[in-house]
Amino acid sequence: MSPPARKPFKLGFFTHVRSASGRGEAHEELVRLFVGAEALGYDVGFVAQHLLAGGEEGSAPSPLISLAPVAVATGRIGLGVAVVTLPITDPVQLAEDALTLDGISRGRLQLGLGTGNANIDKYAAFGRDKARATALFDENLAVLQGALAGHPLRGTDLTLPVDGTPLSRRLWRTAGSAASARRAALTGLGLLFGTATLDARTQQRPIIDAYLAQWAETGPVEAPAEVAGSLRPRLGGIRMIYPADSRESALAALGPFLKAGRARLAKVNGIDSRDLTDDQVLASMNVATGSPSQTAQALRDDAALLPEVDHLIAVTNIIEDAAAGLGRKRTVDVALEGLERIAAEVAPRLGWTPER
């Protein structure tokens, strides 16, 4: 008897928009990345937000602006943000900006929201107290969702014009705990997960289970009534994926990446980096690698992915880092080569088929 068919998923990528050449060139490459990924059949691409950062860390402090030229240059691929740091962002202005980009792209925006751990030390520069990150998130989310549903804004009689492709159905939240996952379900948001240091089985799986259990128990009871009935649970798993000719060649290319990851994990866990094997580093950072078949098997065995995941999202920085380990420059062409291999040799083994 053949095994049951797996639930289809959408294939995406995630980029930090890193560049040593300045924001202008970084954004030219971002457009090329999305255009190339769309040609490969990718369903969606997500852009990270890095505030007050150098280009080598990330060149997109305002991802909705960054995605505007992408929207014009593409016609099908989803435009994702992972994530806007909501506690330090005015929710009415965010609603206006998001609706504008969604209109330019004809309903292709996937808007991720979070407290922004990568930006947590920048809160003071924006006049916000990081100790209130969770409370500020909840307050601003209520305003944002109300604005997107056409409700009067903050006690006034002013409203935002909303169209027939409601962005409210395409909101996501990152969750680092079961409590925030349950909040995502109650408010009707999709759940994005994939922080590199959260173990898939012992940490991410309980977060997913809490989200699905809350949704099954109550549904999105805190979402605006206008859209609550059309919402469903959505899971987006972000993973580092690097297929190579063999596991040996993958490990060789990933040498500098593994060295940096080993040092970081040793510091976080208070252990000697020499006590960590390559396999332990890869597992701790949720990396799927090896030959295409081995890479697909690693994703299939991942405790927090298939069959529930709706979006499987590949991080481009590991592709770029592997190229650097082989003596090549980190460029959009390198990223697209890796994304092409994932789309052609890995994702189809998991049941995905490309859209053209």
Automatic annotation (TrEMBL):
It comes from the Bacteria. Gene3D superfamilies: Luciferase-like domain. Residues 14-262 form the Luciferase-like domain. Transmembrane segments: none annotated. This is LLM class flavin-dependent oxidoreductase. InterPro entries: Bact_Lucif_Oxidored, Luciferase-like_dom, Luciferase-like_sf. The lineage of its organism: Bacteria, Bacillati, Actinomycetota, Actinomycetes, Streptosporangiales.
